[in-house]
Amino acid sequence: MKSTIGIKIGSILLAFLLVLIVKLDKHTTTVITMPIVAVNLNSTKAFTKDFPKSAQVRISGTGRELLFEAIYHKWFNSDSRKLIIDLDQIKRWYNFPLAEYFREKPQQFVAIGGKNIHLLEVITPDTVKIRLAQKYEKWIPIHNNVILETASGYAVAGTPST
């Protein structure tokens, strides 16, 4: 009697595993939230307005690749997926139509799950507005006028440096 219960439970687990493997081989789509990362900002420029830090996108791939990507993103590396916007050629402002931008530059979509994960569409936001301004820096010398006094019962060890 005991051995038949073990065999029944084992066969149910094996059947579940087989169904899972078959289902994960099928091509599927899903909607996820991905961070938007701006790269190659000129060192003499600064953002004048914030832009959205994430976008909702629809991606496609096999179930196995999407599952692997989701597990890897959640447990190992939260930076494993991102949408990269290159700011190298921007002088003052630019409106990035995200759908068109990632259609023209698919290498700017980064996902770890596999080579067959593709970005289908950007759901929201449809446009990212980047506004830049010239950054000015000036070094100003600061002289501290601090007098230290120790509380009673304490002593200063060594001489303070300036």
Oligomer: single chain
How far apart the termini lie comes to 85 Å
Rg measurement, Å:
28 Å
Can you count the helices? 3
Overall pLDDT, averaged? 84
Helical percentage:
25-40%
Query: What is the string of SSEs from the N terminus onward?
Result: HEEEHEEHEEE
Shape: flat
What can be said about the biggest beta sheet? Answer: 5 strands, mixed
Strand content: 25-35%
Low-confidence stretches: none
Task: Tell how many strands the DSSP assignment holds.
Answer: 8
How are the strands ordered across the major sheet?
A: 6-4-1-3-7
- What structural class do helix, strand and pairing data support? alpha+beta
Q: What would you say about this model in short?
A:
This protein is 27% helix and 32% strand. The chain has 162 residues and is α+β, with helices and mostly antiparallel strands. The mean pLDDT is 84.
